[in-house]
Description:
The chain is of the alpha/beta class.
Amino acid sequence: MTKAVGKSRExxxxxxxxxxxxxxxxxxxxxxxxxxxxxxxxxGTSRPRAVxxxxxxxxxxxxxEIDVAAAQARPxxxxxxxxxxxxxxxxxxxxxxxxxxxxxxxxxxxxVARRYADQGTALYLTGEESxxxxxxxxxxxxALHPALYLAAETDLAALLGHVDAVxxxxxxxxxxxxxGSPAVDGAPxxxxxxxxxxxxxxxxxxxxxxxxxxxGHVTKDGSIAGPRVLEHLVDVVLHFEGERHSTLRxxxxxxxxxxxxxxxxxxxxxxxxxxxxxxxxxxxxxxxTEPVSGTCVTVTVEGKRPxxxxxxxxxxxxxxxxxxxxxxVESARVAMVxxxxxxxGRLRLGDQDVYCATVGGMRVTEPAADLALALAVASAYRGxxxxxxxxxxxxxxxxxxxxxxxxxxxxxxxxxRLGFTRAxxxxxxxxxxxxxxxxxxxxxxSVPAGLRVEEVADLGAALxxxxxx
Length: 469
């Protein structure tokens, strides 16, 4: 028997465009990242080739000799956006701003482009609207400026031609999903097109030092549409959030190579445009002449920024299957807090409808609001109002214990600034001098004067302190 000797037949390789995972045959869904339609066929096996040394763009230098002046952030003129960016826009940086349709992304970027035009040249490229439509919006919000240029294009080559002609310091592309390149297969908005267009824009921004802002679409679950590599290519990723029935808008930093990646900026959207809210507490708190049951105030921390939040609860006798409805708070946290109240707080909630919500359209996701949520539900169940000068901060565990949370001192300072005089906090929360209101050190800060701090070890102690046990 003779053994056949010859070249092995080259087998087609299949590689995911999202995560790079390789499979021996084509599949509709990537086994690694679970993305649909992200695995095209690559004919032939790709063997690594030897790479020889080539010319360098610039010689390597000691790190101390690198000039950092070109990488300094320049303020945009919008203080809340500068807070999220860590000081402003860096020349050559590429920023991705994603949000739901109609949330106000274009309005915000028109304002940013107008402010930038005061100190340089800005170019606004739109692919979703005509130039006349954008001009009408700019006139309505007062964003007209002689140094702000506007063009409507959906072709990448035409966009680069506008960049060559205008030579802007700021480039706004609205949106990256509408751009396409004839040199790349696929329709605009597809995975291949988005990746190629974004790579080209990043290259131009880095070579010419143009601060570039890309508008991105989101999917129905809130994630950025397109390949995951899109977020890796850019320098900054921001999420623009807001409820349709609320004027509050939040810009949340997700990724930032030049500053903090967990900051949040507050804006208010109105008919005349959008404006920053340096003190948004008025939107998150209700003003009443008489206290009502079922409300409790907490202080959340978004990045380094403490924000007050009012949690409301309504408990009523169920007529049929009990309902659990949550708005602005996570339904899973609500279910857990209700279970802990039933077991450790001895509240009979099994036959009650429970509705929980926040004020002002704010979304509270951190566990530090658990104690306020539990007190609001207990107050609504007992029909006894909580003191109007009270704030509650703490995470509630399944055993009924109140756990320590981060940045308690900053939360207390914000509560004292807003006029609250009493606070319920977890034990060992960071003060080194015991006793309420004695100015002890609290995690690097002092207990604010006039604020009485009470430590509660478990949920039962908190309910007894409020006469709800």
